Amino acid sequence: MMALGILLFLFLYLLLSLWATVKSYSFAQRRWRRGWIGGGVALLVMYHLVFWDWIPVYWMHKHYCETEAGFWVYKTPEQWIKENPNAEGNVGGNSLPPAEGVTNQMDRKYRYWITPYIYSESIGMHPFYEINKKELRLVDGRTRKLLARSVEFYRGPGGEFGKDGYRIWLTWGKRNCGPVSTFDGISYDPEKHFSGYDGMFGIYERKILKLSKGNVQ
Fold it and tell me: What is the pLDDT of residues 62-77, one digit of tens each?
């Protein structure tokens, strides 16, 4: 219902913009014989009243994707298990420490242990208007060294920091930075299909957890 209301609003606003542009063109043409100036000014005013954030948000999202986003592996799951043979078959179960987290209006951070040896950290931030940053880290709990890390940026309203849900034009196109695997829509495989850099991180996390389980069912 909300989506229908948003589309109706955009349609009516488009009609209003066309009407204002035509009227301004006609006035400027009669008064100064420069109709295109009047029409252009009206069109720019109507555009910026609602869509003022479109270009800045798209540009900043592109900048973040090119300069900060990515997925990095510092040690493969196989290599870590080989170096930590005692971790195989020991996933902790209900004995794992409780999750820890801090949330406020600007960011969100929490940590949870996936095994007695490894914990995962998730850090959410809001670096720019209607752009959300999500950083994931997988850490060796004994050495405090990173095993893998991902940084992803999402454009448009929604998630923890979404403000104006009606600004659907900010979600048009590819909202995140990372690649998206091909999916036929029928046979989903969590080990192969992913969306974005945080999806790639999820595959890594599931793989190291699977190797840590060993023969444990």
Answer: 999 999 999 999 999 9
Whole-number mean pLDDT of the chain?
Answer: 82
Question: Using CA atoms, how far apart are residues 115 and 91, in angstroms rounded to an integer?
Answer: 5
Q: At what angle do helices 35-51 and 2-32 cross, to 10 degrees?
A: 160
The answer to whether 166 touches 120, Cβ cutoff 8 Å, is: no
pLDDT tens digits for range 91-113: 776 678 778 876 666 678 899 99
- Positive or negative, the CA dihedral 109, 115, 116, 118 is negative
Residue type, 30: R
Q: Are the CB atoms for 121 and 139 separated by under 8 Å?
A: yes
Give CA–CA dist 176/131, Å, rounded.
10
Kindly report the number of other CB atoms within 10 A of residue 68's CB atom.
Answer: 14
Q: Apex CA 169: angle with CA 164 and CA 174, to 5°?
A: 110
The answer on pLDDT for 144 being more than 90 is yes
Tokens 């043409």 belong to which residue? 29
pTM of the model: 0.77
